Amino acid sequence: MRDESLGKALRNAPVPVPAEAEGRGLAVVEAAYSERVGGGRGGVAEHRPSLPRLALALGIVTLLAAVLLSPAGAAVRDWVGDVVDTAPKPEAALARIPGGGRLLVQSAAGPWVVQPDGSRRLLGDYEEATWSPRGLFVAVAKGRTLSAVEPGGTPHWSLTAAARVSRPRWAPAGERIAYRSGPELRIVAGDGTGDRLLAPTTAPVAPAWSPRGDAALAYASGSGAVRIVNSETGKILAAAAALPDLSRLAWGADGSAILEASPRALRLREVRARKIAPGPSLDEGRMLPLPPGVSLTGAALAPERQAVAAVVTHWRQHGTYSEVLVFGPGAEKPRSLLTVPYSLGEVAWSPDGRRLLVAWPGANQWLFLPVGRGKPRAVANISTAFSADGRPASFPRIEGWCCAG
Question: How many domains does the chain have?
Fold first, then answer.
């Protein structure tokens, strides 16, 4: 490779090292350069190069070239290629959903369904919404009413609960919907019949169904535990102490893991099948390390692998910035996928687990980020796109990315 080509390759390949280490390295190089070029005896430049420093510089260049060009270096290049240095230039409107699928978006005007070509439809004046399996229906809530509607907006059934309805979640098999009515956790059949109590007191956290299509349901109890219960019989199958201030539960990775999230912590628990007694069991879990002092603003567990996406906000005197982190399966440390100014919002995995959709309220944008190889995309004017009158409104919330093709 010519020197010009090698230089270009090195410039375009950010090395994944801590910022403080990079700063120390630059200081050493600058000091060495100043001493050799302008810091000789009596301030007169020395034209005779220092052989040890020259050999060291040539060795570093040779080593980097070997890493980039060798077969083993292919993985390094792939890793570097997955990192987004800066947010891409935003498109004016969402013309298509990268990778396909449909989005469910909650705005001040109500929930919207976004089709793969970017077209969208407002379902009605509902406060919350969740997809049914394969996106055939949407469960929506307003006040004390839970309803099922088609993605086109046609209602199918409604029921009135004793208290305000919140956090509805449709089971993957389509047979049941779990929802909160006040502090209660209740179950209703997918056709709106058989409404019944499952747990009298729960934390204000959405329940999470087993992705395997069975009757197992995870929820946060009012006493501070994560429980897995048989939604048909009410029998508790497994229980463990929840994170303090638990804000989110997600059951993914083909049913093998449950993610707990709080404003300051993340824990991933393996869900294991028991051979003697029916139903799953929970292990002690492992804490996923977050940078010190950050706030967790979004977290999601991949649908088919034990990969976790997390959005954190760094609070600094010189300004706030946010970071998108990805914990690969079994990884001890996260990979930083993107860093941008201001605060990011929630994050959602694509149905195929290849992309992330990240909300950026401060820039009024959505960010579509490839987890593997691919081109990132940004879409502007999100608050305007999801307002009833076409004027800027409050930034909408991503409720789900549905249905792999």
Answer: 2
Domain boundary residue among 33, 48, 81? Answer: 81
Q: Taking the CB of residue 337, how many other CB atoms lie within 10 A of it?
A: 22
How far is the CA of 54 from the CAs of 6, 10, 35, 43, 46, in angstroms?
18, 18, 13, 21, 14
DSSP annotation string for 177-197: EEEEETTEEEEEETTS---EE
Which single residue is written with the structure tokens 């869900």? 271
Residues with Cβ within 8 Å of residue 366, at least 6 apart in sequence = 94, 357, 358, 359, 360, 378, 379, 382
Nearest to 383 by CA among 360, 367, 357: 360
Mapping DSSP to helix (H, G, I), strand (E, B) and coil, where does residue 156 land?
strand
Phi first, then psi, for residue 312 (nearest 5°) are -125, 150
Of 66, 62, 69, 82, residue with least CA distance to 16: 82
Q: List b or e across 248-261, with b for residues whose CB sees 16 or more CB atoms inside 10 angstroms.
A: bbbbbbebbbbbbb
Q: Are residues 242 and 326 in the same domain?
A: yes
Instruction: Tell me the pLDDT tens digit for each residue of 297-320.
Output: 999 999 999 999 999 999 988 889
Kindly give, in sequence order, each residue whose CB lies less than 8 Å from that of residue 247, ignoring residues fewer than 6 positions away: 205, 261, 262, 263
- The answer on 45 and 182 residing in a single domain is no
Question: How many whole angstroms separate alpha carbon 267 and alpha carbon 287?
Answer: 4
What is each CA distance from 332 to 72, 107, 204, 261, in whole angstroms? 22, 36, 30, 17
What is the Cα 233 distance to its own chain's centre?
A: 33
Q: Which two tokens stand for residue 393?
A: 């409104």
Same domain, residue pair 185 and 300 = yes
For the stretch 352-380, pLDDT in tens is: 999 999 999 999 999 999 998 889 999 99
Q: What is the pTM of this model?
A: 0.78
Q: Which two tokens stand for residue 203?
A: 């934390």
Q: Rounded distance, CA 139 to CA 179, Å?
A: 10
DSSP per residue, 243-303:
PTT--EEEEEGGGTEEEEE-SS-EEEEEEEE-SSSSSEEE---EEPP--TT-EEEEEEE-S
Query: Residue 29, SS3?
Result: helix
